[in-house]
Every structure is written in C-alpha cells, then in structure tokens.
Task: structure prediction
Amino acid sequence: MTNTIKVTDTSVEKAIQKGLRQLGLTQEEVVVEVLSEGKKGLFGFGQKDAIVALTPVVKEEVVEEVSTPVVEETIEEVVAAEDESFEEEFEDEFEDEEDVEGSENEETTVDRLEEAAHVTKAYLEGIAKTYGAEATVAVEVRRDRMTFVFDTDKQGLLIGKHGKILNALQVLAQVSVHRFVKGRISVQVDVGDYRARRSETLQQIAERTARKVLKTKQPVYLEPLPAYERKQIHAALSKNKRISTHSEGKEPHRYLVVEIAE
Result:
C-alpha cells in the first residue's frame, strides 16, 4: 500500500524538501499535494506553516522502464556519439540538396520515404547491437507518419527509466528520416507496445490527479515529464472544465501543475 506523509514547514518548497529527505526520494519519485500554502503573518503573529502531502509513485507504473543507472549513463553516451557520427556520415550527401528548389513529384516522394525507412531501420538496429540489446526493427510507412518498432529480448535496456533512452532513440530516428524527407512527417520509435502502455499509465495518472484536485481543492505538482507526455495529460484533463493545467520549470525538469479552474 502506498504511504502518504504530511509535512509542515515555513514555506511550500521547504516542506517538500523536508518530506523528500524523510522518504529518501527525489521529487520525480513522488506526487506532491499542497494542502496549505501557509501564511506569513505580521511581525510573527498569525503565521501559519505550509502543509504538503507526499505520495511515492507506485512502482508498477514504471517497472518495465527501469534499467540500472550505470547502463543508462553508458547508453546515453553512445547515443550522443552515434548522433554525431551519423550527422558527419550524411553531411556531404545532403549538402547540395538543400539548395534544390521546386516540389518533388509523387514517385520521388515515395522513393525518398522508402530510402529513409531502409536507412533508419538499419541505423537503429546498429545502435541496438552496439548497446548489447540486439533487435530487429519493423517499419510502418505512411505519407505523414513513419513508425519504427524494436523487437528485442532486452526491452528495458532500450526503454530506460521513464522512457528516457527510447526518447533519445526517437530523436535520432527523426534526424535520420528528415535528412531524406522534406516537409512534415511524424516519426515514432517504440519497443514492443511500450508507447501504448505508457499512454494508459498517463491516462490513469491524469484521472487520479483530477480526483485529488477536486477532492482537496489544492494544486498537484506532477513529476517532470517530456513535453509530449505533459501534452497527453493536458489533453486528457482539458475535457474537465473544473480543472486547469499549466507547466512550470525548465527542461528537462519541466513539470505539470494541475489545479482547480478559476
């Protein structure tokens, strides 16, 4: 059962940090509810401490994403190196094409989509092999969307905590595809059905958070999330006119605040 603790201090931020120390967790690992923002008072009279509730995030929500910190750090370093290598490899090939004007015909567009899919598939499989998570990549190609799905026995290694490694691989795939295909095309990288499962988790978080906000009438500060995941939660909660959401902080620690609509 999840244990929620209530903490008081002279400010909301101090209360949060105090609670995190008690739990031995980081802010990314808890859901924070502000029960009272406190009151400064005048000359020390009428002062009221801020009160917050900290609830550890349920572990099963991200169990499929967890890999060891050492492995994650190594993978991120390889991703950075691969990204630089990939850009150098294709720099000359596309240098002259940037100056070509005029729209491409249908046949040329299809050829470029197929070439982008073929090269990016091989590129992603090469990265997976480098990480020691050998995999095959299935590709689905449409005019406005390209999806790459890893099939591997080491899903956790390619997903990373909170999907951090998978998101990095998706950025690399986007760079690869957009070197071949000009214009708008969505690129997504998945491992098994991770994206679908993560989407369900975000929906559950959105619904649970909305219930807490409506019950307590206090804002809830969610853990830092990638922009598109914050967008998913915002979209889910936008249907509820009694709830409002906005983002605070700076990337990559930007988080969503859910509160009662004014």
